[in-house]
Amino acid sequence: MSAYTLTKTRFLEGVWEGLLVATEDGAPAPEIAVTLHDKPIGGVTVAETTSAGRWAVEVPVPVQAVGDGVQTFLITDARAGGVLDSFTLIAGEALADDIRAEVDLLRAELDMLKRAFRRHCLETT
Known about the structure:
Elements: E1 4-12, E2 15-22, E3 32-36, E4 39-40, E5 45-48, E6 54-60, E7 69-77, E8 83-91, H1 99-124
Antiparallel strand pairs: 1-2, 2-6, 3-4, 3-7, 5-6, 7-8
């Protein structure tokens, strides 16, 4: 059992960010490991915050991980070996049947139709 809990705060510009909180008083500084397909990811930073027992975690997504398919990153407590959190990137053909992609496509088409309709109304008045 890990002495920490990890909560995602945001995922922006290729960097997953989270807040790591010690569940026990006096927990040692954390050792975090991030893997993709059982290979370690480099560039992971764990920085102490102004509050005791809290650390900011940043996981940069390597360029090699961006592409077709499903990529699942595991964030683990290197000491205890337990999984603290994970995040997944889905792109390309694997996403083709996803309802969220369909909704996003419909929104884009609706925006295009709205612009065309407004332009038509301006031109015909």
